[in-house]
Amino acid sequence: MSAGWIKIHRKLTSWEWYNDVNTTRVFLHLLLVANHKDNKWRGIEIKRGQRLTSISALAIETNLSIKNIRTSIKRLKSTNEVASHSTAQHTVFTMVNYDLYQEGASEVANKGQAKGKQGATNKNDKNVNKEKEDICKLIFDKWNELFENKLSIPLKLNDKRRSAINGCIKEMKSTRFDFTLLQTWSDYFEHAEKSNFLMGENKDGWKMSFDFVITKSKLLKIVEGEYDN
């Protein structure tokens, strides 16, 4: 179990969203994973009470659908529980009253953790990089989401596939396409889907697979339009 504390009053049961299971789940999850101290990631300042992530990553972390996450965030923002700031690459969520949930908790936590302080890791610092670490999983899930009942669906994201995805990201680093972003992969998959050849209209009836599109040489050909109609 991860170290650290949050402080929640019993009056939470009277909160207007308490009976909305999804909204309460998203709220508590953001509260648990928000930074407990100011930090920086790739030059971006992530303050205490904030979390840099994405809707897709939150869906994976909470096992809720993207639609459920969007609805819950909208509700939390409407009552000023959560604020957010988005760019093309990420979203920073802010727990508006974070300090109210942390007041008094730090002292208890410090006493309980003093003995193991030297070897402890900062879970919240790790969370800042979670989306980066999970990009392969997000890409894997995006393929399955887009092509379920259309193409073959891979069963497992193994080390070989992770290596191939990372190889593609490295290959495209010096181009105008940022393959560190899930949206770029989604656009890439949708572009490939428009190719009749890749979707099976060829003499052999062959269709593209996940392993095919995450091969560096094939990615370049698809991006450069070699399979376009």
What does this structure look like?
The protein is mainly alpha-helical. It folds into two domains: 10-121, Orthogonal Bundle (Arc Repressor Mutant, subunit A), CATH 1.10.10; 135-223, no CATH class. The protein is built from twelve helices and five strands. The strands form two sheets. A three-stranded antiparallel beta sheet has the order 3-5-4. It has a two-stranded antiparallel sheet with strand order 1-2. Strand 1 and strand 2 (44-46) form a beta hairpin. Helix 1 packs across helix 3, helix 2 crosses helix 3 and helix 8 runs parallel beside helix 10 (182-193). It is elongated, with a radius of gyration of 21 Å. Residues 104-121 and 127-132 have low confidence and may be disordered.
Brief characterization of the structure:
This protein is mainly α.
Q: Can you lay out the helices and strands and say which pair or pack?
A:
Blueprint (H helix, E strand, L loop, with lengths): L20 H13 L5 E3 L2 E3 L3 E4 L1 H8 L3 H13 L3 E5 L4 E5 L2 H5 L2 H9 L9 H6 L1 H4 L1 H13 L11 H13 L10 H12 L16 H4 L2 H8 L6
Antiparallel strand pairs: 1-2, 3-5, 4-5
Name the features.
about 230 residues, mainly alpha, Arc Repressor Mutant, subunit A, 2 domains, 3-stranded antiparallel β-sheet, two-stranded antiparallel ribbon, about 10% strand, elongated
